[in-house]
Write a structure and sequence with these properties.
By secondary structure, this protein is mainly α. It is built from 11 helices and 2 strands; from the N terminus they run αββαααααααααα. The N terminus and C terminus are likely disordered.
Length: 387
C-alpha cells in the first residue's frame, strides 16, 4: 500500500474515531452538531480520494523530464512536499487516535471547569468570562488558516512547477490541508482549554489576595478549588501530551526543511524569481512558527498562574493552628504536582522549547549547508574530470 492509499484509508477510518468540538452548558459538556456533518464529509472525501487514485498522478508528474520548467530546485521542493505529506499523515492519525481514546477525559475536563465556575458564581459571586467568544476565536482561526494554507499550497505548487494544476492535484492539496487542519484544530483546542485553566487560576489568585484565610472552612474551600483546577491541568497534560510531542516535532522538521529551501532558492534561482518564491515559502511555514509561539506562551503563562496561587496559599500570614495541618498536607501533595505542561515528559511545553528549537535549527541548517557545499564541490570535480 503506497502513501496515498494509506492516506485514503486514514480518512475513512477517521469517520469512526473522530471527536468533535464540545459545547459547555449548564448540564455539563455535550457533543456539538458539527460531529454528524464532519463524519459525512469525511466519507465523501475518502471516497473521492480513493476513486481518483493519486499515486498515478505523482508517478506521472513527479520528476518528469518532459517538463523543461521542472528544475532541480522544483524536484527538491517536491521531495520535501511528499515527505511533508507523509509526516502530516502520521501526525494526523496520531491526533485522531489520541482524541478518540481520550474523549471521555475531555468531557471530564469540561465538567471540572463547569464545576469550578459554579463555585465561583455561587460562593464568591465572581462570574467567569463567557467561553463562547474564545471558542469562536478558535474556530475562526482554524477557518482562516485552512483557507490561508489552501491558497498558498496552490501558489507554491504553481510557482515551483512541482505539479500541474489539475483537478487531481487540487484534490491532493485539499487532502493535505484537511489533515493539517485536523492537527491544527487539536493545537487550537489545547490553547483554548489551557486558557480556561489559566483564567480560573487567575480568578482564584484574585480572590485569595482579597480575603483572610483564617478559618479551616475558608482554607478547605480554596484548597478544594485549587485541587479541582489541578486535576483539570493534569487531564490536559494527559490528553495533549502525545499530540504536543508529535505536532511540535513535526513543526520543527517542517520549518527546518522550508528554511533550507529558502537558502537553496536564494543561491540557485534567478534574481527576478527569488523574491517571489522566497516570500511564498516564508508565508508557507509562518503559521507553524506562530503556533509554536502561541502554544509555548499560553502554557508558560498558565504555569506562572499556578505557581502564584501556590505561593499565596503557602504564606505564613494565612496560616494559624487550625489550618496548619491542611497547609502541610497541601504542601506534600504539591511536591508531586508538575506546574508545567509537557510532551509526555520528553520536554516541557514552554518558552524553553522555543529556545531549544532555535539552537537546534541553526545546527541543522549549518549541517545541511555543509552537505550542499560538499555536493557542489564533488559535482564540479566530477565534471572537470569527465571533460
Amino acid at each position: 500500500m503506497d502513501v496515498f492509499t494509506a492516506l485514503s484509508a486514514a480518512l475513512f477510518i477517521q469517520r469512526i474515531i473522530c471527536v468533535s468540538p464540545f459545547c459547555i452548558s449548564r448540564d455539563g459538556a455535550t457533543y456539538s452538531k458539527w460531529y454528524i456533518f464532519n463524519g459525512i464529509l469525511q466519507i465523501v472525501v475518502a471516497f473521492v480520494i480513493y476513486i481518483m487514485n493519486f499515486n498515478e498522478l505523482i508517478e506521472r508528474n513527479l520528476f518528469t523530464q518532459s517538463n523543461l520548467q521542472f528544475s532541480r530546485q522544483s524536484q527538491l521542493t517536491s521531495v520535501v512536499g511528499v515527505f511533508e505529506i507523509g509526516i502530516t499523515c502520521i501526525v494526523f492519525i496520531v491526533v485522531l487516535v489520541v482524541m478518540y481514546v481520550k474523549k471521555e477525559k475531555q468531557v471530564e475536563f469540561l465538567e471540572l471547569i463547569h464545576k469550578t465556575d459554579l463555585i465561583f458564581e455561587e460562593t464568591f459571586k465572581i462570574y467567569p468570562n463567557n467561553n463562547q467568544k474564545d471558542r469562536n476565536i478558535r474556530n475562526g482561526s482554524l477557518l482562516f488558516f485552512t483557507i490561508y494554507h489552501f491558497i498558498l499550497s496552490i501558489a507554491l505548487q504553481f510557482i515551483t512547477y512541482s505539479f500541474e494544476l489539475t483537478f487531481q492535484s487540487i484534490l491532493i492539496i485539499s487532502l493535505y490541508n484537511y489533515q493539517v487542519s485536523a492537527a491544527r484544530f487539536s493545537n487550537l483546542t489545547f490553547v483554548f482549554y489551557t486558557d480556561l485553566v489559566r483564567k480560573r487560576f487567575k480568578l482564584l489568585e484574585r480572590y485569595v489576595h482579597g480575603v483572610n484565610l483564617s478559618t479551616e472552612q475558608d482554607y478547605l474551600l480554596i484548597v478544594d478549588i485549587f485541587t479541582t483546577l489541578q486535576k483539570s491541568h493534569e487531564i490536559l497534560n494527559d490528553i495533549f501530551g502525545l499530540i504536543n510531542l508529535f505536532t511540535s516535532t513535526h513543526d520543527f522538521t517542517f520549518i527546518v526543511s522550508q528554511l533550507f529551501i529558502v537558502i537553496w532558492i536564494a543561491n540557485q534561482m534567478e534574481k527576478t524569481m527569488v523574491f517571489l518564491k522566497f516570500i511564498v515559502v516564508i508565508f508557507w511555514f509562518a503559521p507553524n512558527v506562530a503556533k509554536l509561539v502561541v502554544v509555548s506562551n499560553i502554557s508558560e503563562a498558565t504555569a506562572r498562574s499556578i505557581k502564584k496561587c501556590k505561593n499565596l496559599l503557602y504564606k505564613d500570614k494565612k496560616v494559624d493552628k487550625t489550618t496548619m495541618d491542611i497547609v502541610e498536607n497541601f504542601s506534600l501533595r504539591m511536591k508531586h504536582f508538575d506546574d508545567n505542561y509537557t510532551a509526555i515528559n520528553f520536554f516541557p511545553i514552554d518558552n524553553t522549547l522555543l529556545y531549544t528549537m532555535i539552537g537546534a535549527l541553526t545546527t541543522y541548517l549549518f549541517v545541511f549547508i555543509q552537505f550542499r557545499m560538499f555536493e557542489e564541490n564533488y559535482t564540479g570535480t566530477s565534471n572537470s574530470i569527465i571533460s
